[in-house]
Design brief:
Elements lengths: L5 E2 L2 E2 L4 E3 L8 H8 L6 E2 L3 E2 H6 L4 H4 L9 E6 L3 H13 L4 E6 L4 H4 L11 H14 L4 E6 L6 H16 L4 E5 L13 H10 L5 E4 L5 H11 L3 E4 L9 H9 L10 H19 L1 H15 L6 H9 L4 H11 L12 H13 L5
Parallel strand pairs: 3-11, 4-6, 5-6, 6-7, 7-8, 8-9, 9-10, 10-11
Antiparallel strand pairs: 1-2
């Protein structure tokens, strides 16, 4: 294992981060993973204006617990002064790090000059970074994609933003190996990450894209030389991915997949924290999409997945657990990108996943 990953003053036990994922990365998901080996987590992207004005969902997005540290609050916005104001609010709410999202490729985000759009507007991106740095003394991080597209002009724009973040002493930069134009199609370019780290050895770089299991995390870490691995979709419904990565880093064999009893314990724990955030009725709907992700690790995953989709209340949630998780037994390993991606695609096509 290489040198210890540090973000700001925080030394992490393993070089791994639970990424911010829209509709998923609340306190419940983060803490469930932390209790199973995750050393650091990022919130889903919080819209700067919602953070400032107290719009819908603001308080739910800002909920932390004592065991949810260190944690980064991720911001999405287009105006420098609003991003700076929102960043200060996150620090007031006890977030340890502020992360700026210049990577999101979603159409409605791009259309409002936020997220990945800012990779096409280095002037505005740099103004935002400078304003936030002027307002926040603590550690800042940045999420990028490798460019808006594959053009030479996009590459120049990426370099401008990356170099400015380094000049402003951002603690780390996470780089997704796809372009904004690609969204989530095609393969992430890990060779780009390797070349970037070779060119920028003094910057803490976190690699992102196509990490669906612990073996993927190890391959990215060893083949690209990045300082840490940004684990996104692979962590949804699989909080054990971090302890599995730890074992591989230590030269051990991949642990057996979590047993049905271990999965049940995590689901119950996750649900109880979701109730704290959303209340019982909303928690059932929120956890439905989580349940279908956990189902990938169940030996009867397809049936569990179908039943979780139908959940609309805690009674129905409890019925699924009683049907499939009452008796212990071995779990099912998530061993490949295709395995996770197939389940992800089937879930999103059904309209139940964010």
């Amino acid at each position: 294992m290489g040198s210890q990953l540090k973000i700001g003053g925080f030394a992490l036990s393993i070089p791994a981060i639970e990424a911010g994922l829209a509709g998923y990365s609340d306190m419940a998901m983060r803490v469930t993973a932390r209790r199973r080996g995750c050393p650091y987590a990022v919130t889903e992207a919080l819209l700067d204006r919602v953070v400032i004005t107290g719009g819908r969902g603001r308080e739910k997005g800002l909920i932390l617990s004592d065991d949810d540290h260190p944690v980064a609050g991720q911001l999405l916005g287009s105006e420098a002064h609003e991003m700076a104001t929102a960043a200060k609010i996150l620090k007031d709410y006890d977030f340890d790090v502020v992360d700026l999202n210049f990577a999101c490729p979603v159409k409605k985000v791009m259309g409002r000059c936020r997220g990945g759009y800012l990779l096409s507007d280095p002037h505005q991106a740099i103004a935002i970074m400078q304003a936030v740095r002027d307002e926040v003394e603590g550690p800042l991080t940045l999420k990028l994609r490798r460019g808006v597209d594959d053009s030479a002009h996009a590459a120049e724009q990426f370099e401008q933003i990356f170099d400015e973040a380094q000049r402003l002493e951002f603690s780390a930069i996470a780089v997704h190996g796809r372009t904004v134009e690609q969204k989530y199609t095609g393969k992430a370019d890990w060779d780009f990450l390797r070349r970037l780290k070779t060119r920028k050895p003094n910057m803490t770089i976190l690699g992102s894209g196509d990490v669906f299991c612990a073996a993927d995390a190890l391959r990215m870490y060893e083949s690209t030389g990045v300082d840490g691995v940004w684990i996104a979709r692979g962590a949804i419904g699989n909080p054990w991915i971090f302890s599995e990565f730890q074992a591989l880093l230590d030269g051990q064999s991949l642990p057996a997949p979590p047993s049905i009893a271990a999965q049940r314990a995590a689901l119950l724990e996750h649900f109880q924290m979701a109730v704290i955030i959303y209340g019982e009725e909303l928690a059932s709907r929120q956890m439905r999409k989580m349940g279908i992700k956990y189902s990938r690790l169940h030996p009867d995953g397809a049936a569990v997945w179908r039943d979780f989709i139908a959940v609309k209340s805690q009674v129905e949630w409890d019925r699924v657990l009683a049907t499939y998780y009452a008796s212990d037994g071995p779990g099912r390993a998530q061993t490949s990108i295709a395995d996770a991606a197939d389940m992800y695609n089937s879930c999103t096509s059904s309209g139940v996943a964010a």
